[in-house]
Amino acid sequence: MLACLISPSEGSASVGGYEISRESLRIRQMVGILTENPSVYDRLTAYENMDFFAKGYGLSDAQGRRNRIKELLDFFELWERRNDKVATFSRGMRQKLAIARALVHEPPILFLDEPTSGLDPESAKGIRDLMERLSHDEKRTILLCTHRLEDAERLCGRVIIINRGRSVIVGTPEELQNRVAGQSILQVTLRQLNQKILEAVRELRQVREVNVDESTKRLMITVDDIESAAPEVIRSIVYADGMVLSANVVRPSLEEAYLRLVNEGSH
Q1: How far is it, in rounded angstroms, from Cα 265 to Cα 85?
Q2: Which of 56, 117, 150, 159 is 20 to 30 A removed from 176 (C-alpha atoms)?
């Protein structure tokens, strides 16, 4: 709907400042889209698919079009198969070709539905690296629909969790993680652990609970506010003659946040 492939039944939306019901042609010109099922033509070769869509997006210069197609097919390691019919491609190869097709006109906005689906780990990493470069370095807007929450956690500046067609929450990955985390937990690993260190930490005003793992010499310290409490905790350990090997803030993963928020939203 946002890519103007179907019309809305009600409501309104704008993409790049253009309204989807009135200015659909302008929106189609400025977006690239990867649908759930790769939209490529089986009876055409990889090159013919790319050339067809490049012409449709207005790349009229033949040499410029060829250069752009070669650049993308090289990147996705499909150039050697450029003259093969897409019907002979594996699912992963079709996925890569569909992503290349979505990028052929260098759109400022990309809609990507499960872009790493069906790809081997190396190819999936390449796609994630590409999305990161397009977003951070080339400043393109990417709307990523994914069930791979580790991708969303790594790549996305903002996340919307949808459950049964309704928005559960919108925010940065960190905001979503903090939403379900409750009190902050500081994990501190020490070279040696003794009663003097434990007493020093427990006496701090912001410390609510201290859990000890003797085998790893690790403290799990629950505090009110991590930013103000962490320096005080580390300082108290050092003053108690403790040697800190590492200190980390423990937050739930985005997947854990998702499961908890969706469960809350269904009740």
Answers
A1: 46
A2: 117
